[in-house]
Amino acid sequence: MISETIISAVDDVVEQMLANAGGQKPERLKIIVEHPANLTHGDYSTNVAMQLAKTLKKPPMSIAGEIKERLLAHVKINALFYKIEVAAPGFINLYLDWGKWASEASRGAILPDPDRKSAKVLIEHTSINPNKSAHIGHLRNSCIGDTLARMLKRIGQQVEVHNYIDDLGNQLADTVVGFMHTKTEEPFARFGDFCWETYAKINKAYKANPDLQKERAVVLHELEQGSSNVAWLGLLVAERIVREHLEELKQFGVEYDVLVWESSIVREGFWSQAFELLRTTPIFRQETEGKLAGCWVLKQAEDGGSSADNEDFHADKVLVRSNGILTYTAKDIAYHLWKFGLLGKDFHYAKFTDRVWSTQQDGVKKTIGHADRVINVIDRRQEYPQAMVKQALLALGYEQQAQHLQHVSYGVVSLSPDTAADLGVDITERKHSYPMSGRQGIGIKVADLLDRMEQIIDAKRSRRTGLSSRVIAAAAIRYYLLKFHLQTEIVFDFEQATEISGNTGVYLLYSYARACSILDKVKSESGQTAPPAAFDDLELQEHTLLRQLAYWPEILHTAVQELAPNHICAYMHELATLFNHFYATCPILRAENRKKHVRVWLTERFRETLRDALQVLGLPTPKRM
RNA sequence: GUCCCAGUAGCUCAGUUGGAUAGAGCAUACGCCUUCUAAGCGUACGGUCGGGGGUUCGAAUCCCUCCUGGGACGCCA
């Protein structure tokens, strides 16, 4: 990558200068290379001279001048840049030689090549409770997880995607209780939608008749035992729902390698094994008195004794309830020991669909799991239980694994007042946003959003060629859910989410198709145009487009580093915008020979780069639209 | 009570390991298709970066403090 080349060259140069001056390299000297916002500041710039002013006891400008001279003599810098300038108060700006860059870019040399044999990364995402249809909050999770998997694969890492199915949880039990104690008369097209209503109804019934909640405990117990009629019913419900979820998410390009069922964890004896391990640690023990008497808990450090005044809040985490039933976190700890290959036990597997495996007791052995790094995509509200899993690993002495266990936390999706009102929520309080609630049956179902988006696109599109409106709709929704910073709580608004102009997936696909259409007319095969040797008299729009193309490897790298898909979205929108400016300003096919060559080549590079980025985000690459 | 996250244009959001004139989309107004895809492009309008203090060559970004909103701390997941 270009920025890496600059950093290493600057590092060489700075070291020489410090050695000459007899100085030490400052501890916290970070050489940062930026993409200047302004074209006149070059294509890359660094502020290292200003950082060194104190150490070298010289004005930044003179330091920058010296670094510039030494960089100009540096082989690697010389090979890529034609000019370096110093700008007040001490910036060093570097200008790419586009002819040289072009020959490298065409060889693909600049893109990150697959690393040498890398560690195995296990990504868990989706993990929706299998008791009702999915809503857009679930979809955000799946899109993030699926995109992270694609990002890591793109840079050559070995990735395995897991979807954890909580088929022994309260929520599934609730839906089962709902089957037996609520009434349904209206028809539903999908099983999950019927369950959605049933789940809301049973929660309402619990309020009216709290005794009914005892039923849940009974069902939960039967689910865990696994042999009764009720257990079979639960299994059927969960499996049917999971199939609907997978089918639905497939439309958004979301895919998995393996489903891990919570019931498998229990029945394969994973918990018993984990329990024996945990018992050897001082922080795991059974309470004999107090509120948690009879429970097995993970003890948390008392902080200064002030917690005594707040009996409502205590940090200890129950893993086994006093009635002997396991909590989610208990099973999650066993699961994570297994993910890292630390349990000494393994699952068996059977095919769930033609490409997805599923844990199954009478299945076959597979080399699944045994990861070096684990990424869990789970919303921010679950930071505490995730921390408990990590703490259990630490308590067992697995420090390295704990360090390589990463919770990718993201903000929840809530509803704008207008959209909440559409769903019948009372918005007289005029809050900024309204939470979705499965228990109350409040939420935007994925299928409903997709249907509505499809209709909107169908009504507004001006051409019927290429992708179907439904495929475009799914892509638009996926992009919408990925473009926000992970920590941002998405306040979902129907009007805003269904935009088809501006910073949207539709705009990106359209720009891609536009480039394809133009290149079709020159009958250019991909990558066929030879890179121009020189780029003289570049138009502003040509230059800015070139620059943005050059930045792609670095953006991808940063996004992977930070596990932040939104960087890629922002980059692509900028890239597409610059291409459209270029398109509007510079005739491509009608230009004269030399210019035409440059412009066709640029359009080709744009198409290839955008295609790469679209694929990393899991979006389609339509030749026509 | 303890801890975490956030507050940037009318709305929704980028930008936050300190950098050069704080950006985008939507909305509003006005323009641009006999010419490569108008799902596009252009112009205009729009800001005490929640308030106050501090650190320094330089702060939306770091520190302190206050205000406001959201979340976690459950024998739910």
UniProtKB/TrEMBL annotation:
Family stated for the protein in its record: Belongs to the class-I aminoacyl-tRNA synthetase family.
SUPFAM superfamilies xref list: Anticodon-binding domain of a subclass of class I aminoacyl-tRNA synthetases (SSF47323), Arginyl-tRNA synthetase (ArgRS), N-terminal 'additional' domain (SSF55190), Nucleotidylyl transferase (SSF52374)
Top-level taxonomic group: Bacteria
Record domain DALR anticodon binding: where: 508-625
Keyword Lyase (UniProt): no
Residue stretches spanning the membrane: none
InterPro entries xref list: Arg-tRNA-ligase, Arg-tRNA-synth_N, Arg-tRNA-synth_N_sf, ArgRS_core, DALR_anticod-bd, Rossmann-like_a/b/a_fold, tRNAsynth_Ia_anticodon-bd
Keywords on record: Aminoacyl-tRNA synthetase, ATP-binding, Cytoplasm, Ligase, Nucleotide-binding, Protein biosynthesis
Gene coding for it: argS
Keyword Lipoprotein: no
Assembly notes: Monomer.
Main location: cytoplasm
UniProt organism field: Gordoniibacillus kamchatkensis
Compartment list: Cytoplasm
Listed EC numbers: 6.1.1.19
Pfam families: Arg_tRNA_synt_N (PF03485), DALR_1 (PF05746), tRNA-synt_1d (PF00750)
Enzyme class: ligase
Alphabetized HAMAP family for the sequence: Arg_tRNA_synth (MF_00123)
Name of the molecule in the record: Arginine--tRNA ligase
Record's catalysed reaction(s): tRNA(Arg) + L-arginine + ATP = L-arginyl-tRNA(Arg) + AMP + diphosphate
Domain Arginyl tRNA synthetase N-terminal, chain residue ranges per copy: 4-96
PANTHER family documented for this protein: ARGININE--TRNA LIGASE, CYTOPLASMIC, ARGINYL-TRNA SYNTHETASE
